[in-house]
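My current task is to audit a protein record that another person submitted. Thanks in advance; the entry in question is below:
***
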Amino acid sequence: MTIQLRIAAPESLSDSIVRECRSFAGTAGLSVSSGASLIPAGDVITVLIPREAADRLLQRLHAMGVPELGAVTITEPELVLSKRADKVEKRVPGEGVDAVIWDEVEGSLGEDSRLSWSYLVFLIIALQLAGIGIVTNSTIAVVGAMVVGPEFGPLAALAMGLIERRMTLVRNAAVALALGFPLAMLVTAAATWISRPWGIYSSDALSQGSAVEFIYHPGPYSFIVAVLAGAAGMMSLIGRKSSALVGVFISVTTVPAAGFAAVALVLGDAPKAGASAIQLALNLAGIVISGIVVLLFHRFVRAHKTPRSPK
């Protein structure tokens, strides 16, 4: 799995970047277009490199100040025909499918962690679906709420921010969670209160919801499921296997717990509302903790990878 780095850098850095790329064990191809960059004024350097070696080279470019003075663009060619690239890929440690480019992960989490209109809309819709599933005793609606819920992005960003000490990332994620959930729960409670006089659901709907009892029964397995789901979600995110996130969302009860708490408060069932709130807290904590553990593991692996000697 080969990727291409396009580096636009001022002339003062160009020679140093070329020397760095020439000496780097993972470089499979290198070209320079002098004066090709207008903004910033300077050269364009193109590097062909196996994906599993990209993060190490990017760390060196960061140390040289390239992102601050120039720009680095990463693309993934659909097809690369090069015997040299094949040999270099065999020489560098790791597998392309498992390789993590941390700048890529942080960029993705930075976008997903902000309190945006789309995030709020998805969260409100998810809690509405959860509320409908709760009062109608519909597991399908509850599962739909799990899939629609966008909360994993801020939770993963919170874990990343704590590990990397990125306070901006932590602050954005905390705001998205701290404001998003209460607002969505308020809208769900209002919808429940407005719908009650219309007779859309029975007043004893919570006592008949045997299919959704798991939402307000917190216990050891609630935390274990959240930890496993958070680990799977983080692995899916950093491994670019986003399709697996659907299964992760179905595995946790973050959104349904928030929806149940809102509905139960309106229907006057404080004990179930409190239990659902505990379930929500357990899931949020479990996902963040497992995300931190996964990131620490990847950091340890990255620190102990060493390039193989050229043959």
